């Protein structure tokens, strides 16, 4: 008989995992303590923007295989329980807050059937899985725990979950691996690489991967700083080094840097955990990665100041983009919003446009003005900043919108617009890591 699965925590990770597992034919029940979230999900509605997820979710609910609950006891007849709760940065520190992971484990422990498996998917500091496994076995000796980190990207969550580029399973027992092979049978059939690891290695794979990605982005942003100093062009440099397959061209997009709910907090939690382990020096470089990343936000504000004669007081600034990246409505640690807030605090009158993230952005920063229309955002602007590379912004015709603004100055914080096109339409065009001489 097919396994019955539960998913504990129905945020980006959990809601996607639940819908995708159901689409593979499993019966799945999603659990969350937040009543409003469960009410929405039960109606086939996704409480955040993720391309393709809502369609999949409602289709799976209609199939009868997928349901949601706020009652943990409804999970009692499941064979495998995935823990997908968040591990945010603790307030006032760098470490990960494990409150939700700990309480998920404690609430499910006694309900796990004999031979049942708890599978952690949340990003946790190394050592957590071993501790949780001991706790689980103490509360329920017939249960087991494995770790199975998730590498999905927001904006591609469904695709990444259904077709992951690798599956990593941290297990202690062969029986745990066997159950996970049953869960991921369809991926194995398609030859998705399968990496069996011990528990600590599986936890480390996740933070190592995110640290590497963050390092790649900060590396190219450091090169952008050098290009600015030496009158070079970081976009050409990135293209040229990217042709070397050992380097690769992805994640070399210079600009205002990384944000979101993962990369920034994960590198900080990694540093905090390494220090606890007495291995602080090994990841000390991540402090520099973080600093380069935050510096990019200041560098763009410097460009704005230069073009506005160092006086932002009362100046109308139009900002295109609020989400931390395109195809997402997530504004957690969004570089775009951070820049908007800092410019507003310096006295400017800022209007922010985003096709999907305005509701979330407004909740976080009610002091900013928001607009759902690009043209209204640009109206009378004394400078325009492109901070999240949504496709709709690349489709703007610089000739058409020139008459809307007061000063035709575009600052491209993502190196994603066509400089030639904007310049030939008569705009001053600035970008990070490129010569800003006309
Ligand atoms: C990241 C990882 O890419 C996923 O593999 C991982 O599963 C996820 O974190 C997680 O830990 O849950 P995500 O946060 O969705 O995924 O976003 P990314 O696509 O990695 O982008 C992160 C940030 O880097 C964005 O702000 C993006 O604008 C920025 N970025 C990305 C750049 O500035 N330059 C680049 O070249 C690429």
UniProtKB/TrEMBL annotation:
GO biological process: polysaccharide biosynthetic process; UDP-glucuronate biosynthetic process
Pfam family, one: UDPG_MGDP_dh_N
Pathway: Nucleotide-sugar biosynthesis; UDP-alpha-D-glucuronate biosynthesis; UDP-alpha-D-glucuronate from UDP-alpha-D-glucose: step 1/1
Keyword Oxidoreductase attributed: yes
UDP-glucose/GDP-mannose dehydrogenase C-terminal domain mapped to chain residues: 318-419
Catalytic activity: UDP-alpha-D-glucose + 2 NAD(+) + H2O = UDP-alpha-D-glucuronate + 2 NADH + 3 H(+)
SMART domains per the UniProt record, alphabetical: UDPG_MGDP_dh_C
Keywords, ordered alphabetically: NAD, Oxidoreductase
Annotated NAD(+) binding sites: 32, 37, 87, 123, 154, 265, 332
Gene3D superfamilies (UniProt xref): Cytochrome c1, transmembrane anchor, C-terminal, NAD(P)-binding Rossmann-like Domain
Signal peptide as annotated in the record: none
Highest rank taxon of the organism: Bacteria
GO molecular function: NAD binding; UDP-glucose 6-dehydrogenase activity
Residues involved in substrate binding: 151-154, 206, 251-255, 259, 325
EC number annotated for this UniProt entry: 1.1.1.22
Residues the record marks as active site: 262
Database matches in PANTHER family: UDP-GLUCOSE 6-DEHYDROGENASE TUAD
Family: Belongs to the UDP-glucose/GDP-mannose dehydrogenase family.
Protein's name in the database: UDP-glucose 6-dehydrogenase
Organism: Candidatus Nanopelagicus abundans
């Amino acid at each position: 008989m097919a396994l019955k699965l539960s998913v504990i925590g129905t945020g980006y990770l959990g809601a996607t995992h639940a819908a995708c597992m159901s689409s593979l034919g499993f019966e799945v029940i999603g659990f969350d303590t937040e009543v409003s979230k469960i009410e929405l999900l039960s109606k086939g509605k996704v409480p955040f923007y993720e391309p393709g997820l809502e369609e999949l979710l409602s289709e799976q609910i209609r199939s009868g295989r997928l349901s949601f609950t706020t009652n943990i006891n409804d999970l009692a007849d499941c064979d495998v329980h995935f823990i997908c709760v968040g591990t945010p940065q603790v307030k006032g520190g760098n470490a990960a807050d494990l409150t939700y992971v700990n309480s998920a484990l404690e609430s499910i422990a006694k309900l796990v059937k004999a031979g049942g498996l708890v599978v952690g998917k949340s990003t946790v500091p190394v050592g957590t899985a071993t501790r949780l496994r001991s706790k689980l076995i103490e509360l329920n000796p017939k249960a087991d725990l494995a770790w199975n980190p998730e590498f999905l990207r927001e904006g591609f969550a469904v695709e990444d979950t259904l077709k992951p580029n690798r599956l990593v399973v941290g297990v202690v027992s062969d029986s745990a691996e066997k159950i996970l092979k049953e869960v991921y049978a369809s991926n194995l059939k398609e030859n998705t690489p399968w990496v069996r690891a011990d528990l600590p290695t599986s936890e480390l794979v996740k933070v190592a991967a995110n640290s590497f990605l963050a390092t790649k982005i900060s590396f190219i942003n450091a090169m952008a700083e050098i290009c600015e100093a030496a009158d070079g062009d970081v976009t050409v440099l990135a293209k040229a080094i990217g042709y070397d397959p050992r380097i690769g061209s992805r994640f070399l997009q210079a600009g205002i840097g990384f944000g979101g709910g993962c990369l920034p907090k994960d590198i900080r939690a990694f540093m905090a955990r390494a220090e606890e382990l007495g291995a602080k020096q090994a990841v000390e470089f991540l402090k520099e990665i973080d600093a380069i990343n935050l510096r990019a936000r200041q560098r763009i504000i410097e460009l704005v100041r230069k073009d506005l004669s160092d006086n932002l007081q009362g100046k109308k600034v139009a900002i295109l983009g609020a989400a931390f990246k395109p195809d997402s409505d997530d504004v957690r640690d969004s570089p775009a919003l951070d820049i908007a807030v800092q410019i507003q605090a310096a006295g400017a009158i800022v209007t922010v446009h985003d096709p999907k993230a305005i509701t979330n952005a407004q909740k976080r920063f009610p002091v900013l003005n928001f607009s759902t229309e690009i043209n209204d955002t640009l109206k009378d602007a004394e400078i325009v900043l492109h901070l999240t590379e949504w496709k709709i912004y690349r489709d703007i015709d610089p000739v058409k919108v020139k008459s809307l603004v007061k000063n035709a100055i575009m600052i491209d914080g993502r190196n994603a617009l066509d400089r030639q096109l904007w310049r030939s339409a008569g705009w001053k065009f600035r970008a990070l890591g490129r010569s800003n001489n006309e």
